[in-house]
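--- STAGE predict ---
source: upstream dedup step, 1 unique chain passed
mode: sequence only
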Amino acid sequence: MKFEDIILTGDRPTGPLHLGHYVGSLLNRVTLQDQYKQYIMIADLQALTDNADNPQKVRDNVMEVLLDYLSVGIDPKKTTIFVQSMIPEIAELTVLYLNLVTVNRLQRNPTVKAEMQSKSYGETVPAGFLMYPVSQAADITIVKGTIIPVGEDQLPMIEQTNEIVRSFNRIYGKEVFPEAKALVSKVGRLAGLDGKAKMSKSLGNAIYLSDDADTLKKKVMSMYTDPGHLRVEDPGQIEGNMVFEYLDVFDTNKEKVAELKHQYRQGGLGDVKLKMYLFQVLNDLLTPIRLKRAELAKNKDAVMQILLEGTQQVRLVAQKTMDEVRKAMHLNYE
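--- STAGE serialize ---
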C-alpha cells in the first residue's frame, strides 16, 4: 500500500447510485483500495446545497449510498468511509478557505457554471451552492488527499483546490497541504437512457444498482435506439444508439458486440431482440450486487456502524490537520 498517496472520493446522497457511478468511479475505488490509503466521503452537506428544503431525503439516502458502496466490493477493512457532516473540521477549513478565493473566480468555474445552468440558477443561486468548490477543497485537504478519482467534468474542481492550496501555503509560509492530482476514469460520462444527457437521478434517465430485474427490463426496453429503424429488415444506425453504447461499456464479449453491430447495420436485427440481449448483460452484472445489497440491508444498524467507525477515524486525522492549520495561521492560542 502506497501511504505516500492518499485517495479521496465520494458522492452526494441524493439518491441511490446508478450505472454511471459504477463505471465512472466505483470500479476504480474497488481497485484502488488495494493500492493506496483510500477515503470515501458521503457528501451530505454538499447535497444540501440544492436540497436544503428536504434534509430527510439526504439523510435517508446516506444509507442507500452506503449500501451501494459495500455491495459493489468496497471493503471497510481497506477503505475508510465517512460522512461529511460529522467532521466539523471540514466546515471550519471551508470558512478559512473562503478568504482565499473570490466570488468572481467561483462564478467562472466551468463546472459550477454548467451545474447552475442545468438547475436554472441565476441571481437566485444559493451561496452554499456557489461556494461548494471551496467545500470540496476542504474535503480533499482535510485528509491531505493527493489523488482524486474524477470525471473530466470535475477537473476544474481539482484545479480550484490546487489554487487554494498554493495560496494557503504561500500566504502562511508553510507547506501544510500537498497539491492533488486528478485520476480520470477510463470510461467517459455514461449517457442516460434517453440519449440526451448524462445518466442522472434528477433527469430520471438512470439505471440504479438497486433496481430489481423487472425494473431493469422496463428501463432497457425504453432505451433510445435508432428512430429510423422501423422494421427488423431495415438497416440501423449504431451511432447515438444507446443500446450499443451500453454494450460497448458493459459487455465483455467484444466479438459478440461487433457481430451485433454488423447485423444491425445490414438489417435483420430488431430492437426488441437487441434490448433483450442488453438486459441479460446488465442483469448478469447487477444480480450479485443486488443480492449482496439485500443481504446487507437486513442489518442496517451494522452497516451504519461501519460509517460511524470510519467517521471517527477521520475525526482524528482532521483534528491533526487543523492543528497544523491553526499553527500556520497563528490561531493556536493555547
